[in-house]
Design brief:
The complex is a heterodimer of chains A (about 120) and B (about 110). Chain A is an all-beta fold. Chain A contains no helices and 11 strands. Chain B has about 110 residues and is mostly beta strands. Chain B is built from no helices and 11 strands. The chains are: A mainly beta (about 120), B mainly beta (about 110).
Chain lengths: ~120, ~110
């Protein structure tokens, strides 16, 4: 059974950094691309970043490009999101999701909440 | 840019429902597949895949859900809405980087 568990969220001041983790289990993590999607309070879904199964390719949303870095550890089965120069508008729940062979996001974690506030 | 309509959809249980999603660029790859997914976020839950590649129901999704369309115009239909179908439905394109979601359509019971 596919299981994705995010952690690392919390309250952080603007300009600071935070690293999110997504622990994966129940599938061969190293065979799947992975994504981060966020949701500001009361708002819709906002795609953040993706990394290929072999770490060779990364993509970022325009609003986070140059500030966020997605990475993964295929030995520990963990996906990461390093968030730097955080802004108030980065506040929201961050979900990790697995990308299936059709490129759809077929399994999602429960999310971790990030609040950027002074 | 992904544009959904309507933004809010009140429905009566047992009646059909339809949501539209339009892209400003073609979502049909040269391989013939349309890279358009539908997701639902039920109250208090994480998003869940409903339809992939425009028309393929995800595992475990009831057959009252169907997806259709091609190129720039896509539709999600629920043949007979049930109470458990309430939530916000999003379309998402997977052909171009960065991926983009529609603004969401809230399905609620009348």
């Amino acid at each position: 059974q596919v299981h994705l568990v995010e952690s690392g969220g919390g309250v952080v001041q603007p300009g600071k950094s935070l690293r999110l983790s997504c622990a994966a289990s129940g599938f061969t993590f190293s065979a799947y691309g992975m994504h981060w999607v966020r949701q500001a309070p009361g708002k819709g879904l906002d795609w953040v970043a993706a990394i290929s199964y072999d770490e060779r390719n990364e993509n970022y949303g325009d609003s986070v490009k140059g500030r966020f870095i997605v990475s993964r550890d295929n030995v520990k089965n963990i996906l990461y999101l390093q968030m730097n120069s955080l802004r108030a508008e980065d506040t929201g729940r961050y979900f990790c999701a697995r990308m299936d062979t059709t490129t759809s996001l077929d399994h999602w974690g429960q999310g971790t909440l990030v609040i950027v506030s002074a | 840019v992904m544009t959904q309509s309507p933004i809010s959809l009140p429905v009566t249980p047992g009646e059909p429902a339809s949501i539209s999603c339009r892209s400003n660029k073609s979502l049909q790859h040269t391989n013939g597949f349309n890279y358009l997914d539908w997701y639902v976020q039920r109250p208090g839950q994480s998003p869940q895949l409903v339809i992939s590649m425009g028309s393929d129901r995800a595992s475990g999704v009831p057959d009252r859900f169907s997806g259709s369309g091609s190129d720039t115009d896509f539709t999600l239909k629920i043949s007979r809405v049930e109470v458990e179908d309430v939530g916000v439905y999003y379309c998402m394109q997977g052909l171009y980087a960065p991926r983009t979601f529609g603004q969401g359509t809230t399905v609620e019971i009348k």
